[in-house]
Each structure stands twice: as C-alpha cells, then as structure tokens.
Design brief:
By secondary structure, the protein is of the alpha+beta class. It has four domains: 37-248, Cytochrome Bc1 Complex, Chain A, domain 1; 272-486, Cytochrome Bc1 Complex, Chain A, domain 1, CATH 3.30.830; 513-661 and 669-730, Cytochrome Bc1 Complex, Chain A, domain 1 (2-Layer Sandwich); 751-933, Cytochrome Bc1 Complex, Chain A, domain 1, CATH 3.30.830.10. It has 30 helices and 23 strands. The strands form four sheets. A seven-stranded mixed β-sheet has the order 12-13-14-18-15-17-16, with helices on both faces. A six-stranded mixed β-sheet has the order 1-2-6-3-5-4, sandwiched between helices. A hairpin with a 3-residue loop joins strand 16 and strand 17. The chain is globular, with a radius of gyration of 30 Å. The protein starts with a helix and ends with a strand.
C-alpha cells in the first residue's frame, strides 16, 4: 500500500511539473480546442464542426458573415440589417416563407430557435436546437446555410413587403437610450463611420431604396472569403464534414473582391465633449471614455493579461460597491473598467451617476476612489480573495465542462472567426488558471489604471434631464476636478474585514429527524424534524458535485392588511441589501471568499421561500446561510435610510415619459380599484416603517414547521442528515401552519375599451389587449391554452407582421394560475403606425374569431413538435427534479407521469384547441387599450 501511494504521488508530481513546464514560455500560442474541427475550403469559406451531447439529440447551425453596417454607403444606410431580414424571405431552394414553414413543421420555432442579428461589423444567423437524428432535416439546414451564403432570392415584392416590418422596427427602437447613443456616437467614435451607422438605418432609405442597391450590397459583401459556418451538436462530424465540403465548395469565389478593411477611428489629441439633454432621464450621468487600439493576443501572455484586466475591473467594482453600502458615497453609482469598444479598439471607461445638482461632489468622490488605486494600488487581501473566488469558479466550470450547450460553443466560434480569438478547451483553461493566477501580483493589477488613463483619445459624455435653470457640468469643470484630485494626497484604502472572522455569531441548538419515509415514485426521501420542518431529499448522481435547496411556505402578503403592504414590500426588497448576520454585503463577500455557497429569500403575494445552492465541499456553509436567513438576518438602519432617501428622490424626480405613463395607466386600469394595488409614490414611502418591516420579515421567516425544505443534488443522504439536523433542525418554530388569503379578483368585467393620448418624442401607437377568465383546472385545460397562445403567435406573425408589414411583431403571452383560484389569461400587445392602429387591431380580433371556427392542422403540428422538443426530461438535472418534487407537494401532480404531458400532447386535435378557444374567448373579460400620440 505504501508503494502504491508513493507511485501515485510521484505521478501527480510529474504531472504538475509537466503543466508548469507547459506554461514556462508565455510567448507560445494558446492551443485551440482540438475537439473542434476547423477547415478552410478553396473558395475561402471556413467551417467549424463539433460533436456535443448537451443537449442530446439536438444540433445548432450558425453562419457568420464578416459584414455589418460599417460597410454601407450613404445610399445603403440600414441595408445590412435589411438584408438580414431578407434571408428569411426566400432563397433559391426555399422560395417565399417555405424555409420557415419547413423548420416550424419540424419543431424549430422562428424567433426562438431561428434568428439573426446585425451589428456594425457582423451579421450572424442561427438555426438552433434542431432534432439531429432526422438526416433529411439536418441536410435541409445545411442547404439553408448554403443559400444564406450565395442564393438569396431578393425578389422585389418580398423586399417591398419587408419595408413595413423594418419601418415598424425602426419606430419601436426609438427609445431614450437609442436617441442618447446616436447623439454621443460622433464624439466617442470621433467622426468615423461608426458614428453614423446605427444598424437600423434611416427611415427614408428603408422606405425608398432601389432593390438593386440591396442586391449590390449582397453580391459585393456576402462572399465566401468573409463567411464561416459552424455545426455543433449531436452529429457525426465525419459525415457532416463531407456534406459541407460537397455543398459549400460549389459556391464560386468572387473575382477581384473589394477589400474588407477595418474601420479606423482618428486619434484626437484634445479631449472631446458632448452634453446631451434627454427628458426621460432623471439623473445626471458623466462618462469618461479613453479609446485604445487593440489587437487580439492569442499567446499565453495575452491570456494572463486578460486575467489581470478582469481582476482590475472586479476590484474596482467591489471598491465602489463598498462605498455605496457604507451610505457615505456622494454618488448614486460609479465604475471604472477596461473592455471592448468596437472591433480593433478597447476603452478605459469611468462613469458616475448623480442626483441633479450634485454632479461636482459625485464626480470628485468617484474619481478620488480611482486615484486612490493609482496612488496606492489595491491591497494583497483584496486580490487574494478575488483569486480564491476565481480559482473556485474555474474548478466549477471544469466540472460542468460536459454540460456546455451547443449554442455556447457556437458563440465562442463566432469570436474565433470574426475576432481571431482562441477557443481553449476546459482542461487547458483550468490548468492554466491554477498555474498562473496565484502568481499575478497586486502591483500588476493596480497598474492597469495608470496604463490606460492616457491623455489622448479622451471623450466626455454628460447626459441629464431637461431642467429649466440647470446647467450641465462643463468639460472645464470636470477637468479641474480631475486635476485637483490627482494633485491631492489621498489616504490609502484600509481593508477592515478580518479574513478569519466566523460566519455565524450564534451556535445552533440541533434538532433531530423523528420520522423518515420513502417517496418511491421519485426515488426520494421525506424526513420530519423535531421542530416540525419537513425535508424532501432526492439524490441525483450526475458528477456535478452540486446541491440545491429550496424551502417554501404559504402566506405572503395576502395575510396582511393594506396599511402594512408598504412595509411588507420593504421587507421583500430591502433586507437582502443589508447583508446577513454581522456583515454587510461587502464584508460578507470577503469572509466567504473561495466558497461556492449562496442563499437568498423571496417574499411574494401568496408564499415565501428560501433558495440556496453550493458545491458539495461547501455544504455546511450553505446550511449555515439557510439557518441565518431565518435566525440571523441583518437590519441596517443607515442603509435603510439611504435607500429611502434615494426612493424619495426618484419619486420626486420621476420623468413622466410615454412609456411610464402607459405602464402606470395599464396598472390602474387592470387593478380597477383594488385597494391592495398601491401606487408607488410619496404616500406609499411615508407608510414604510423600519420596525414594522423587521417584524414582517420575522413573521414570514421564523417558523420552520410551516416550511417544506427540498434538497436535490449529488450527495449521499447519510452525509446530509447531520447537517439537516444541526441547522434546519435548529430553526425556531411556532408550530403554526398558515395558508394564503384570497382577497378577490378586481379585473374589469365585460369588455372595456380605452383610447389614451400621450405626449411622445417619437410618435407611435401601442395596442394592448388583456383577457382574463375563470376556468376549471385540468392538465388539458392548461396545455390547450398554451397551444392556443402559440397558434395565435403563428397567425399574427403571418397575417399582421408578414402580409401587412404592420408591426415588428405581435407579442402573445398566455397565462395560467391556480392561486388563489384558477384563472386563464391572454395578453396581446404590439406597436405600430398610429394611422394603422385601429385597422391592425381589427385584424387581431378577426384572428381571435377565426381560431374559434378553425384551427389549422399545420399550425397545431408546428406547435406540438416545438413543445415536445422543449419538454425533454433532463432526468439528471437538479433543477428539473426540484420542479418535479415541488409540483408534487404543492398540487399532488406527478410531472413524471405520462398523463402530465405526454398523453395530452400526443392526443390533442384541432377540435380540442378550437373548443378551448371557444370556451376561453366566449366568456373572457377584456381590457382593450390603444395608446396614441397627442395631436396639437
């Protein structure tokens, strides 16, 4: 035995030495993940293939076009994005909408599984979660990728039909954030093409461009030397590779292609500044951005440098958060970080958010903290805690390496192709991190600020509300503050939290398990503790080394009078921000560095719950935190007062925008006089009482006997029981079992129509239709209602978005609830041209009438296939088992039973959905609202 141990230790030492040797020369390249097969065809097209079984039986297909809005001419402004839309409107192999029809008939849903996006530099298409055991379907997806490369139809009638859809997307995107971004872009990008290409483009171009202009853009830029495809999933890589070579090699390379150059942002020696007024903003934001040219460094040194930059960003975030938690910060928020800007550029970002009139003090306070790091650096203790957390995260990622889903790989491959990034495998990343992270010094991390706080390529952006008599802080004032701070003596940061401080301040008095029984249908166990708490445990052997816990009790705000609701809301929202036990959130994070345990609480309308999770090695810490949520919550009066001060300010300075007025109006109309639905205003805040908040928290979370604790994970029962007895068994109990209270339904009865006119910066109409109806519960009822919602989504997409071009999309959301009584709901909403609002609303009601008469078998088949695909039972997944067990204890229903889903979905007919539609729509109460722009 001694010899075996010596041999084993020798092997470990040799292996460790080999790893150290592997990383000795930091100039060598990071190795590319060898499980990803990469090839380049003679025509220049690149392909990436990988077999991945997460999820099993599915595969994802991507195409990356190294083409974006920055390549457009003035006459083409918006056409890169328009072209992305046209890829779904007909190809040589799949004319018209036949591509989407084919995919939907195979359970691959447009918008959810099939989508695309365009940016300034790239356009990416995906067909995700495709059933890969159907060879014909896989081949069809390859044909779609091939067609996207070179065979878009771009028929004039389809182009003209899409103009309306994109015009409505243009209208929908005109938000405050979009307006601000467009105003700041010329300064940030110093007049380069990035400043004038917002991707969506100009409305005049969208509505009037010559179709030949779009075809020119397509043939000029969609070409094999600027394209790559990726197929990742449950596939035969060798077979797929042969088919890829056969299909894609046939695409001809473009002769004498136009150079795809990189955008150059001119240097600015002098700082640039822009002041932006936006009435929808209530605070003042000041941003300093320092632009730096950047190239991808794929060496080991570059990978090590990325850790240094990440550490700087994380430590600065922690410093500012600690200041905010101390209630001494003169700013509302602040940050400093180094990261990506646009392709070929990164930026050092420093930002401050302040109350109106407090910008000077806020900027000075935040910049002082940055200069504290410049002058004194971070402390060893700060960095060592961060290293410990990073190494734990790396280890956890390594354990989860086999559960990385195919779309995550495809996103990594996108960076590999478009940005020349390296995809390292999980083993390499883990080994490199273990070897390199301990050697990163505090001096290296602290130097990041000085390295990137350079004088050239600076831009200042100041954004604030339109306030009469209030002037913006000027560039001269900002720079004067910076000079003052840089030339002042700043005291070094002092880390006051002892690293060896105990987590708990009380010693629990353990309980014991007094009754055990098996729940055979789930392979689970139920334990009853001496304090009345019930624990349900299910072991899941999936090699994840992870455990999750959820404790649930009935009651919530339904048990309280209306005058207590403001303090109840505070107990729900504020207490988690105070920390736990003796520690505020910043201190807690420090003393639990390197631990994986986390615990949170939620107090809702009808119940309260505790949620926790941990890796097996930190199980005791997880149970301690659960105990503390009940017995040692933290109530911080100073932090409470600061939160209240901020809430009063927000209420007083709330920007009344069209969006906020819509939200408040819908809330008022839906509440319909319900006295328990309170407006969040000064009167609401005046009713919040610190002591009553504490009482309510303890009333909700002080009675173990009223909770059922569900524990799921990769751990043995016998190792879990002592922890359950010591910590859950020690929670106090009153022995009282509560139930929620039904306060009635106030949703307006009958059909209620409203037309509401609002002041708007960008005129548009918003149509909202909310429906609600009583129902008798059954599995068929809920499943049929969800099917109905999905079928309506198909009909609205086809007839209102595509045929009419009337809206960017109609949102359809079916709802169902069993507490306090069974209700079904249907919410329908869309934005459109105000002139078309009434007409399009008529079309919505026409579809609602039609679905009561006829449900197309083709629509039902599409929806059913997609629902079956999404209902895949992840039997080795902790969260799946948690939902199974909580559902069983809440309702008595067994999600594992065929009657819960399979038997219903396999036997559903068009008549079933037609009847369900009739039953719901015939008696549903309707709230019908159109919001329109005010006219002079």
């Amino acid at each position: 035995m001694q010899r075996v141990f010596i041999l084993l230790m020798g092997a470990i030492l040799i292996s460790t030495a080999a790893f150290a040797q592997q990383f000795a020369d930091l100039s060598q390249p990071v190795p590319f993940d060898t499980t990803i097969r990469k090839g380049v065809l003679p025509n220049g097209l690149t392909y990436y293939l990988k077999r991945n079984l997460s999820p099993k039986g599915l595969a994802s297909f991507y195409i990356y076009q190294n083409v974006g809005a920055s390549l457009e001419t003035e006459q083409q402004d918006g056409l890169a994005h328009f072209l992305e839309h046209m890829a779904f409107n007909g190809t040589n192999t799949f004319p018209g909408k036949s591509m989407l029809n084919m995919l939907e008939h195979n359970g691959v849903k447009f918008g959810k599984d099939v989508n695309a996006y365009t940016t300034k530099n790239e356009t990416v298409y995906n067909i995700s979660r495709v059933p890969s055991q159907r060879a014909g379907l896989v081949d069809s997806c390859l044909l779609i990728l091939r067609d996207w490369c070179d065979e878009l139809s771009l028929e004039e009638k389809e182009i003209d039909a899409e103009r309306g859809v994109i015009s409505e997307e243009w209208r929908t995107r005109r938000t405050a954030a979009f307006r601000v971004q467009n105003k700041m872009a010329p300064t940030i990008y110093n007049g380069s093409i990035y400043a004038y290409r917002d991707v969506i483009g100009e409305l005049d171009v969208i509505q009037n461009f010559d179709p030949e202009e779009l075809r020119n853009f397509y043939h000029e830029w969609y070409r094999t030397d600027l394209q790559a495809i990726a197929i990742v999933g449950d596939i035969d890589v060798d077979a797929i590779e042969q088919r890829v070579i056969e299909l894609f090699s046939a695409i001809p390379a473009i002769e004498n292609p136009k150079e795809r150059g990189a955008v150059v942002i001119p240097d600015n020696q002098e700082a640039m500044c822009v002041h932006i007024s936006e009435k929808e903003y209530k605070n003042v934001n000041i941003n300093l951005k320092i632009r730096h040219k950047s190239t991808q460094d794929n060496t080991l040194e570059g990978l090590r440098e990325s850790y240094i930059n990440r550490f700087f960003n994380a430590l600065m975030k922690a410093r500012y958060k600690e200041l905010l938690l101390s209630a001494k910060a003169p700013f509302l928020n602040a940050g400093a970080s180094y990261g990506a800007l646009e392709r070929g550029y990164k930026a050092f970002n420093f930002y401050v958010s302040a109350n109106v009139g407090e910008e000077t003090e806020a900027f000075k306070g935040a910049y002082t903290e940055l200069q504290r790091v410049v002058q004194h650096g971070f402390t060893e203790s700060e960095l060592e805690r961060l290293k410990a957390n990073t190494l734990v995260a790396l280890k956890n990622s390594y354990h989860k390496r086999n559960s990385i889903n195919s779309d995550a790989y495809c996103k990594a491959i996108k960076r590999a192709y478009l940005e020349d990034a390296i995809i390292a495998d999980a083993k390499f990343k883990y080994q490199f991190g273990k070897e390199m992270i301990p050697g990163i010094t505090v001096e290296e991390v602290s130097a990041v600020a000085s390295r990137y706080l350079t004088d050239i390529n600076r831009s200042y952006v100041v954004i604030g509300p339109e306030k009469e008599g209030k002037a913006f802080i000027s560039q001269e004032e900002i720079e004067a503050i910076m000079d003052e701070v840089e030339n002042s003596t700043i005291q070094p940061y002092v880390d006051m939290t002892p690293t060896d401080a105990p987590l708990m301040s009380v010693t629990p008095v353990p309980g014991e398990i007094v009754e055990e029984k098996d729940i055979e249908e789930f392979g689970a166990q139920e334990w009853t503790l001496s304090n009345g708490a019930k624990v349900v445990f299910k072991q899941v052997k999936n090699n994840s080394k992870k455990v999750i816990l959820k404790a649930i009790s009935k009651g919530g705000s339904s048990l309280y009078d209306t005058n207590d609701l403001p303090s109840f809301k505070a107990a729900s929202a504020f207490v988690s921000g105070f920390g736990i036990g003796a520690y505020n959130p910043s201190q807690f994070k420090k003393i639990t560095a390197g631990k994986t345990a986390a615990c949170s609480y939620q107090i809702g309308v009808y119940n309260e719950s505790i949620a926790a999770n941990s890796m097996v090695q930190d199980l005791e810490t997880m149970f301690q935190l659960v105990f503390m949520r009940f017995e040692e919550p933290r109530f911080d009066r100073l932090a409470f007062d600061k939160l209240m001060e901020r809430n009063y300010y927000n209420v007083e300075n709330e920007a009344k925008t069209a969006k906020s007025i819509m939200r408040d109006t819908l809330g008022t109309l839906s509440a319909n006089g319900n006295p328990r639905i309170l407006k969040f205003d000064k009167a609401f805040l005046d009713q919040i009482n610190f002591e009553r908040m504490k009482e309510i928290y303890f009333e909700r979370l002080s009675n173990a006997a009223d909770f059922t604790f569900f524990i799921i994970g990769d751990v043995e029962a016998e190792s879990l029981k002592p922890l359950v007895e010591e910590y859950i068994g020690a929670i106090n109990t009153t022995g009282k079992v509560e139930k929620w209270v039904d306060h009635g339904d106030y949703f307006p009865k009958g059909k209620n129509e409203h037309r509401i006119y609002l002041p708007m910066t960008e005129p548009k109409a918003t149509v909202v239709i909310k429906m609600s109806s009583d129902a008798n519960y059954s599995r068929e009822t809920t499943i049929y209602h969800n099917i109905l919602g999905s079928i309506l989504n198909l009909r609205f997409t086809e007839n209102i978005r595509e045929k009419e071009g009337g809206t960017y999309g109609v949102k359809v959301r079916p709802t169902g609830s069993r507490i306090p009584e069974m209700k079904l709901g249907l919410n329908i909403q869309f934005d459109c041209d105000p002139a078309k609002a009434d007409y399009l609303k008529e079309l919505v009601y026409k579809e609602l009438t039609e679905v009561r008469k006829t449900v197309l078998q083709s629509d039902l088949d599409k929806v059913v296939l997609n629902m079956k695909k999404n209902n895949r039972k992840a039997l080795m997944n902790n969260n799946y088992w948690l939902s199974v067990l909580t559902k069983f204890y809440e309702t008595g229903e067994n999600r594992m039973s065929a009657d819960y889903f399979d038997n219903v979905i396999n036997n559903v007919t068009t008549k079933d959905i037609q009847k369900a539609a009739n039953k719901f729509l015939k008696k549903a109460d309707v709230l019908d609202v159109i919001f329109l722009p005010e006219t002079k």
